[in-house]
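I had to read the description of the data format several times before I understood it. The format is easy to grasp once an entry is in front of the reader. For illustration, here is how one protein appears when written out as sequence plus structure tokens:
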Amino acid sequence: MSNNSKLTLIVDGNWLFMSRMAVLLNKITNIDDLCSEIELLMIKSMKIVLRNFSDIDNIVFVSDGGSWRKNIDISELEEPLKKLGICEVVGYKETRVHSDEIDWDYVFDKFNKFQQLLEDNDITTCHEHYVEGDDWAWYWSTTLNEQGTNVIIWTKDNDLKQLINTDSNGCFTVWWNKDNGLFKKLTNESEMNWFFNNEYSENERIMNNIIKKSSKVTDINPREIVIEKIFMGDLGDNVLPIAMRHAKNPDSTKKFRISKKDINYDIDINDYEAVKNYFINLMNNKSYVNRIINDDINIILKHFDFNKKMVWLDKSQYPDEILNEMKKHNLIGISNNISVVESLLQSKANDVEDILENI
């Protein structure tokens, strides 16, 4: 483990960029000045995180390059999905819109140049066509954990909570941001592991340091997030719920998703027969019988597989070509030194101010 990072910060770059943009958007009207200030604010925010968590010795900055999920054929499911009546059947995440008042091509070009500046100064960055930031967070958190490196995913994207993990040596991935605090895996690890295993002891020390610096700590079962999103969908990403039911009142137009209390959180989502039997039993449940929309079990199972591919960040769900693209990326090195980048950005901002003063 001595040649590896002991704690790597995975930065959700799109979230960091857009959240800092929201802070500055109404204060700065010139788009060049806006982009420059966003860049500086991102670096300053990263420095604060590094100060809070002194064990971080490496940074991986990830961002969206589009999504391979938008290319999945849903023609067979399109008509059944329309019957759910929640929203128009459009592509994955196509319900998200940006303001027309901003030249987004220009803004994201600046964002890409910022990432290149990070990479030129030994910070690992990851951006490829059709690969989402979520995919990179999965790839790097699992890859680094396998190498014995602990990970903090810095984001506000709740989808990424499914990546939270702790292995038998105490090597972990946690989800964190300042406002929501720390989310870590609910475990039943024996204290004897800590006593006899030096590696476990070191990971425990690092975890305890993160806990001390977090305003709130929440233990969760990350698998439950995956199960809920498959069964109940995610309307924010236009992933529609499975097996919706009509209201009891035949005159009502209301429709309901599967209740959380009716979800089997222990189900093996890769066991086709177990999933099939679950839905057959659900349709015969007194609360659902004769009320299920799209009660064709074959359609339900196809929808289940579709949702699984949409929401589950797992190697089994990725096309080979996307996995191969991610595998091309390696750590540039072990580095958390962003002070050089800050100096370069500050110098550029000062040069612009000097030029303006001489006009």
User: Anything to note?
Assistant: Residues 352-359 have pLDDT under 50 and may be disordered. The longest strand covers residues 7-12. The longest helix spans residues 31-52.
